[in-house]
Amino acid sequence: ETGVTQSPTHLIKTRGQQVTLRCSSQSGHNTVSWYQQALGQGPQFIFQYYREEENGRGNFPPRFSGLQFPNYSSELNVNALELDDSALYLCASRISPGTGYNEQFFGPGTRLTVL
Amino acid sequence: GENVEQHPSTLSVQEGDSAVIKCTYSDSASNYFPWYKQELGKGPQLIIDIRSNVGEKKDQRIAVTLNKTAKHFSLHITETQPEDSAVYFCAASKPNTGNQFYFGTGTSLTVIP
Question: From CA B18, how far away is CA A16, in angstroms rounded?
Answer without folding.
Answer: 48
